């Protein structure tokens, strides 16, 4: 179970707040005379405000009214809406001698149908005039009276706009709810986890991967003892469903609570994973002098879920282990267990970024940015306690080469080889560049680059040209825009240490007669010499492989670092060959990708 260091006292305070808030909610709902809650959402950028409240008959009303409308019209509509619900329920509880507070519209054969409850809005114990505009009338702390029932108006309280549990939950793997808040933040919110008392004892409400309700936990649920945003089920939870009770907050007040029930049961995990031993080296977040950096191609779902992948690329992998819901559990556990400060990911599906990675990594203190390529893209995450995002300088290689004056000299060389030029311009590869600033020392900034170069085995010359564009752009950011800031350049470069691309990065030049200029045959040969002026080295050296599939294994991934400003404190050992080949090759039931993450601790010089 993850906790912030030294947070026991704070945790006790949160638990007390949970209990106080739960008691307050219960009191509001059960004690006679206590005020109900009327929630008003009113933001300047929208023409309408919304009003939400529960009637005595149990029905819930949600109204949309123009902010510029006089209050009297809104109150009249509330009275009309309440007539069939609240007034009838109130009338049933009253004797004929003690009638509810109603106003009748006039005589008629059926006067009950023409009677509406008196509806008034009070602020500081004075009635609000009916000609006051809605935007000004519905103030926080006002009191709405409908007949005999009073509602406390809460204007723009913290509220969940999205709340969802994963569709696949495994014992031993963190459950990270996807949530979005308005007028609040996760750090100020309260969470409490429950599990079924016994299998099948709590019936799901149905409708999708999770369901929402406002009811208190029933006797069929038992507390897990965990009141944090993330819950890791144990083997004792296998076969049970989970429930999350959430109260949105902002550090000053709380909004209406919600409950979220998983429809899926907790399933057994795969046992030991390839990254479990690696996590022994990364149990804690590093101190401020270090930057734990991860580079990882996580295998896009758009590639894993093809017939070609299942039958040709990864025929040795169990089909269920290629399913996204399964792999996401492994990816979340692996990444959160590294306690990294920087994470650069490749082959990230957009929905995986928003629905899986952001909820999981945000819960562990990281924030991320995304750059789409075509079907998938790049993601860079950074630890919020250590870094803030200053600026982004992402490019598409072919667009930059075509139109950015920075690459004029390179373009003049490339256009001499029309066939090569056409192929380079057809590629969709992108470069993600983020400039981060230390939260502890504003003078410390860093340029973090992330890319995924063209994949084809015969595309060596294309990768050389892409890398030339990348290094020129990175130098512009780290020398011209932010003079002297160090560089960390991560990615899947699809190049082994024997290739021209690697030689170019490490040595600063590539001769025009290098064999990679004819990587796709003599007819496409493009002879050009290239140079760059960044001093880079591979932080993790040259592992035997970072990609291991049935028909190939080799080192394709690197974390290149600025030799002038950074040094390597430690490299987290890669999984052993025995671990990698336990299920023949990658991916497998114990490893979610065909690549292996690179992890190292870097130190400012």
Automatic annotation (TrEMBL):
Species name: Pteropus vampyrus
GO molecular function: metal ion binding; poly(A)-specific ribonuclease activity
Catalytic reaction equation(s): Exonucleolytic cleavage of poly(A) to 5'-AMP
Stored InterPro entries: CCR4/nocturin_mRNA_transcr, Endo/exonu/phosph_ase_sf, Endo/exonuclease/phosphatase, PDE12-like_N
Biased composition (Low complexity): 210-220
UniProt keyword annotations, A-Z: Exonuclease, Hydrolase, Magnesium, Metal-binding, Mitochondrion, mRNA processing, Nuclease, Phosphoprotein, Transit peptide
Protein name: 2',5'-phosphodiesterase 12
PANTHER family: 2',5'-PHOSPHODIESTERASE 12 (PTHR12121:SF37), CARBON CATABOLITE REPRESSOR PROTEIN 4 (PTHR12121)
The 2',5'-phosphodiesterase 12-like N-terminal domain, residue ranges: 157-267
Chain segments carrying region Disordered: 198-228
An individual GO BP term: mRNA processing
Domain of life: Eukaryota
Recorded GO CC terms: mitochondrial matrix
Location within or outside the cell: Mitochondrion matrix
